[in-house]
Amino acid sequence: MSDERAIVIDNGTGMTKAGFSTDDFPSAVFPAMVGRPKYKQDVVAGTGKQVYVGDEAMAKKGVLKLSYPIAHGQVTDWDDMIKIWGHCFQNELRKDPKQYNVLL
């Protein structure tokens, strides 16, 4: 591990909060949702993306089928949960989880 700080992720039913153990507040807070185009032929805003996570899914919710991988405090869709964690590390925190201790 290159850093003594740990990444802490609070996986909520509605929001995901993430940051570092040494910080007072989370550095990332975003909706715990995953969106996919409603119809196979849909290409959202010309991006060709098949999966949208968090704020990006919320912004395009009119053309996406949304899913929420946590219900009543339990993970109900592990594939989408992994997408949320990937988004958290890559897009929100911009950190490699292999370089940090991680508390979920």
UniProtKB/TrEMBL annotation:
SUPFAM superfamilies: Actin-like ATPase domain. Keywords: ATP-binding, Cytoplasm, Cytoskeleton, Nucleotide-binding. It is found in: Cytoplasm, Cytoskeleton. Gene3D superfamilies: 3.30.420.40. GO terms for cellular component: cytoskeleton. The keyword Electron transport does not apply. GO terms for molecular function: ATP binding. Its main location: cytoplasm. PANTHER family: ACTIN. This is Actin. It comes from Trepomonas sp. PC1.
